[in-house]
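Shipment paperwork, digital attachment
Item: protein structure file
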Amino acid sequence: LTPMLGGFLYGFDVGATSFVLSMLLRGDDTSGGVVWWSDLSSVKQGLLVSALSLGALLGSHIVLMYLSHWVGRRMELRLCATCYLVGTCFNVLSGTWLKSFTTWGFTALFVGRLIFGTGVGFVMHGAPAYMAEMCPP
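Attachment content:
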């Protein structure tokens, strides 16, 4: 069951990105301060949306070229979960502590989505192979 959640997370993130982007562009902040996401240019919007796919491309390349033969499928899925966790922490950091710093807030969100996308690339290779190896003949 757990390896199948990787595909769900990828699809959920792709579907939720447009909603989150529209929320960011409204610029609502409950504390009344100035936030970095209130004036995103179209280039920055495109970077935030495509960062997940770029990370998935990088993660798939890393897995297929280097990682899959050395660490095994189970460790690959653990690395995927670590990428999910670290990427999520960066995303949360961009909206909490760094919300008043334009450059650092955007960078943290972009890097967080890139790391999360790397985990997606890991799971798109590792989960199907792991489930195929674990199923009875």
